[in-house]
Amino acid sequence: MSKPAFSAVSKESLSDSVYRQLADKILRGELPAGEPLPAERELSETLGVNRGAVREAIKRLQQARLVAVRQGGNSVVLDYRAEGGLELLPSLLVNGQGQLDTAVVRSIMAMRSALAPDIAAAAVKGGAALADELDALLAPMRRDGDLRVLQDQALAFWHKLVERGGNIAFRLAFNSMTRTYTQVWDALRLVLQAEFRDLDNLGAIAAAVRRGDAEAARRHGRLHVEIGRGALEQALDAMEGRQRLQ
Amino acid sequence: MSKPAFSAVSKESLSDSVYRQLADKILRGELPAGEPLPAERELSETLGVNRGAVREAIKRLQQARLVAVRQGGNSVVLDYRAEGGLELLPSLLVNGQGQLDTAVVRSIMAMRSALAPDIAAAAVKGGAALADELDALLAPMRRDGDLRVLQDQALAFWHKLVERGGNIAFRLAFNSMTRTYTQVWDALRLVLQAEFRDLDNLGAIAAAVRRGDAEAARRHGRLHVEIGRGALEQALDAMEGRQRLQ
DNA sequence: CACCCTCAACTGGTATGATAAGTTGACCAC
DNA sequence: GTGGTCAACTTATCATACCAGTTGAGGGTG
């Protein structure tokens, strides 16, 4: 997760680029709900791409429920707040200029706090086998104080919990949320460091999993993520305070 | 929601049909992760549609993270459990033959239980204005015992809570989940009737919103949805027990 | 005037066929 | 074995049709 030695070279296709541009305009409010989209032929001309590429992009906008399409009439922009699914979250976190939306950050942390306890509780069905694997993940965290390691292992810890919990809704939501905050993975490292260093609650979760104690797992799960939530809340307050002073 | 007098005639486009077929095969495990997809030209020939329709469908599969595409090589199926977002939930609830997956049902109910209390708690910021609107939604429920009315108004009640809570993550997740269980809206009516008739907790939430009492809202939110969860759990146990006897 | 019909000029939906660009695996030279 | 070559794949993009549904302006009709 942190500091990959190499990363895949990005080769964005034309339709990807068109999709990104249009989705950005919609999510930033530049194209408000109800507004008709330019015609496909017009878009393909102004963007200098083939109509097929535009159509592929619009199909994706349709799937994300950002626009409604019907033959004969222009496609129209929908209200993503009312129609969109959780998969939009990553695109909402950082707006076009790369600034992150603090309201979205708070939202994510609130959702994380709501889900984490139940994710931990659901994982107790994994029993001793899961507990062993969780302890194995904790080992390098105890040995090595490197924040990067702590952060990566903590994510792996929760990933395993949600993977073994057998709750597909939790898992899919976890995927969407993970994709959201890995965008700001580096920035989170320092802000959430108190949580990453909280090995006690993670260890307590592993122990609770081992003895099948769902309530203890839930309790320690809540305690653990609330550490990060509090820290982030403080950081955001400070950030917004500074902005107001400017 | 319930019993619309008329509903829009379905006009599925070719690419929609192709997408649905492929997504179904993947979600049902017929095309396991790692398996290469047939070539676009081959698919377009076997399905009897032009290649553009196939490409639009595959772009959507790519967006849903059901497949990975790269120029020059075949597209390959991904593990949706590890990659997919919450927007897949509706497609997972009912498998190809229209049978519903009880594990998915349980997952959804667990997620609902995890989110509902915090949704109620977040809504208290709406204050008296929101409380008035909530009471207005409860009025027809108290007047009219019709289960259909109760069900629709209860959904509207939660919709308003999540809409006013100002938490975009909650809202998008709520959208995904709503789309999931409106698929079995009629079947849920009887199973969850005890919850729909529980106006006491809904009224208590409205009252808590009015006086800004987040903890009370959270508590009554939890109590309310646990009624439905328990009822559904019983129904599923009975159903699965019957299946085992067959 | 109000109503309704017609129709041209839009819109998206589908089809065909060509070319560019990247991947794969067999083959060969060293 | 290592590395290069190349033919036969694949997806990516393009151009150009034509089909099908929507819309709004115009003109009739009562």
Protein architecture, described:
The structure is a homodimer of 246-residue chains. Chain A has helices at residues 14-27, 40-47, 51-63, 80-83, 89-93, 102-122, 127-143, 147-164, 168-181, 185-191, 193-196, 199-210, 214-245; strands at residues 67-68, 76-77. Chain A is elongated. Chain A has two domains: 14-84, Arc Repressor Mutant, subunit A; 89-245, Four Helix Bundle (Hemerythrin (Met), subunit A). The first copy, chain A, contains 13 helices and two strands; from the N terminus they run H-H-H-E-E-H-H-H-H-H-H-H-H-H-H. The longest helix of chain A is centred in the C-terminal third of the chain and has 32 residues, at 214-245. Helices cover 69% and strands 2% of the residues of chain A. In chain A, helix 1 crosses helix 3, helix 2 (40-47) packs across helix 3 (51-63) and helix 6 crosses helix 8. In chain A, strands 1-2 form a two-stranded antiparallel sheet. The first copy, chain A, is mainly α. The model of chain A has no long low-confidence stretch (mean pLDDT 93). At the A-B interface, helix 3, helix 4, helix 6 and helix 9 of A face helix 3, helix 4, helix 6 and helix 9 of B. Chain A binds a DNA duplex (30 and 30 nucleotides) through helix 3.
Secondary structure layout:
Two copies of one chain form a homodimer.
Chain A (H helix, E strand, L loop, with lengths): L13 H14 L12 H8 L3 H13 L3 E2 L7 E2 L2 H4 L5 H5 L8 H21 L4 H17 L3 H18 L3 H14 L3 H7 L1 H4 L2 H12 L3 H32 L1
Antiparallel strand pairs in A: 1-2
Chain A binds a DNA duplex (30 and 30 nucleotides) through helix 3.
